[in-house]
Structure of DUF368 domain-containing protein:
Amino acid sequence: MFLELIIKGFIVGIAFIIPGVSGGTLAVYLGIYKKLLDSIGNIFTDFKNSMKFLIPFAIGGVISVLGLAKLFGILIEWNSYIVLMFFIGLLAGGLKHIYLKSQVKSLHLPSLISGGLAFMLLLLVIIIDKTKSTEGIEYFNLVFTDYLIIIGLGIVGATTMIIPGISGSAMLMVLGFYTAIVTNVIGNVLNFDNLSYNLRVLVFFALGIFIGIILFSKLISFLLDKYPKQTYFAILGFIIASIIGVFLEIKDPNSNVSFENQKPIYQDLWTYISENPWIVIIGLTLLVLGYISSQYLTKIELKGSQNES
């Protein structure tokens, strides 16, 4: 169980460094979402049992984020189409599973409204991200206000971990702090030349994450218990919108060396397809593999739930 939770934490941690992918979504697909919320929400009332779950999960997540941030940064700059198509398949493959968890058997207007509002809300965030003209910052000055901003970013990051379908990395991009947090700090945490700077940013970012998780886990857990149909449909709406968001993050590596300066393929999709037929085929193959992987994960989760009951 300990090793299994480390592995699941590792998988969920990957989502934090992939633009558009949600850790909460992967937690649902892995069958640990409700347990994660309960462990966080009961950390002060049932500390021992909460830690039995959270410690191995956190170990896996930390290993994933610190160990893979640099690698995925390199891979995404090399060819984001190939990398992100797999994750689009992964997200799409679990949609039926989320629908089944909602237990909606027929037309249920409150659930449809909940899902529609969630979809439109996240789509609005994505549109703002794609149309904003301001560039993000690369480094903090680490004055008092910067520390408050970093804590606030941690709280935002925590909500994206708790709410399936909302990507922490995408939200950091929208706010203009993705490079400052993920690329230059998490991706270079072992760069001893900037160790003091990196540690200070990480400590305050982690503090914000802790505060945010404690605040929002109780709320989401309450909604899942009291309004499961509406909540799961909201999750569906978030995930469908996030699939659109991930696709819009795909860029043409031939347009620039840096991922941030590369041209999005949606701006001239047909030209990209016609000039890169083999890359497109590889990406579509990975899309299918991601879909199959998600189906496999959700079947394992369903089997585990049946065994528990």
In short: Residues 2-308 form one domain. The longest helix spans residues 47-92. The beta strands are 251-252, 263-264. The chain is about 75% helix and 0% strand.
